[in-house]
Amino acid sequence: MSELLQFLFSGLTVGAVYALVALGFTIIYNASDVVNFAQGEFVMLGGMMTVFAYAAGLPLPLAALIAIVATAGVGVALNKLAIEPARGAPVVSLIIITIGASIFLRGVAQVLFGKQIHRFPSFSGDTPFRIGGATILPQSLWVIAGGLTVFVALYLFFTKTLTGKAVLATSNNRLAAQLVGINTNWVMTLSFALSAAIGALAGVLITPITNTSYDVGIALALKGFAAAMLGGMGNPKGALVGGLLLGVLEALTAGYLSSQYKDAAAFVIILLVLFIMPQGLFGIKQTERV
Amino acid sequence: MSTLLSVDGLGITFGGLRAVHDVGFSLQPGEILSVIGPNGAGKTTLFNMISGIYHPGAGKVILDGQDVTAMRPDLLARRGMSRTFQNLQIFQNMTVLENAIAGYHLQETGSFMADLFSLPASRARARTAKDGAMELLARVGLDRAAETEAGNLSYGKLKRLEIARALALNPKVLLLDEPAAGCNAVETEEIDHMIAEVAKSGVGILLVEHDMKMVMRISNHIVVLDHGEKIAEGDPATVSQNPAVIAAYLRAEAGADAGAAHA
After folding, report:
1. Most buried among A4, A224, B40, B177, using CB within 10 Å?
2. CA distance B46 to chain A (A)
């Protein structure tokens, strides 16, 4: 029992990070139907920049804040320099552009930050809490709390605020959105900033546990993407549940079978779900008029 | 009466094709101005230039005394220009009501935080928008379909929904691109009445329509295009007697017949 609990704890921690990455996918997807494969690099940048700002002598919270804001800036630049000039191109081309951007960002990070593994200390020490025979790191609680907070904030943003609805309207029909007075360029800028900031936050929260290096983004983007697909692309609830589910599945497979199979097991289950429910767990059926 | 919208020397070329050349007219508040012409005459292209979808190669669009040439559609919407499309621009995944409410968002002056926490002020505003939207839907006869997903409506109903959304913006100028296409005789007459009513409230209406009976019935002023150029303008009676107009339409028909004969 305590063993199961232990696996659940570590699964939820990793799952919360996947959920944050998936939430980042959700925002940009909602605004533009584009799956931004540079999302993992935002996570990397968040962690990396915190490492270097902290090493430069800034207090940790300030370093984290700077990293998040700077990463949001990178997101805006990505939109302005790479996505906006290609407006009108098919979504697939835009997705390929984001893959290019992810390779570019990884390259720049490798040059700037080096190939070593970096880390900074946990927010509230490393003394684990004991719960029911299992242990959990204080940093894990930070990660899980961060994931839940971002989820609630985004959920309210999309369902309650005019700005959030403008994002959804832009995704649904960009021209119609413009016709009702929505500045769709601004919506895109906002989406990339928000999405990058959330990615960076994930990086800040997880780096004390997993450490970071220039190439952590690839795996995270892949897992976050899988989580978003599992939950249903475009739905914040789907992103959260998909992320947590994926994390727990991995932890259980690693614990009870073998850590060699943890990725395989997770992806097999995702495939099964998608065979039965191609829209994901919370996705809405898409209808297109011809 | 001051001019609401004036179009002066508007033109655009696509590659070597001169789609619209040197077209000008002016629209007064409460006036219904129709743009007619054979297929391919450049009517929709003209609309697209006026409403900021295309950047005109030449000429000016003046709205309320201000130059709005090639301005983005969202900025035009804020200045009181609203339009519908021949091939529909609807939020397909939203309900009919949500589509109409979307048109209201410019009139809402929401506070981000009030919305986020559903404060009473924010709820009251949402209610106002909803009531207003329902009223407009009733006006176009879609109030009973309010909760239907827009993607499931018939073409004729979607046309009316698009008009309702355009009206929700409370426009000064309304551009309607074939509002009666795909509607039956009864629906066409309803749209007739609605357009006349909207015009009566002081909105200037620019209309592209193929239903000549409707155009002759409701227009104050008609501009005739052929091959991208203005060949005539005036009141319905004058225009329908104009030899150049009759020739353009006859030629278009003869061309269609000849095409059919060759096929």
Report:
1. A224
2. 17
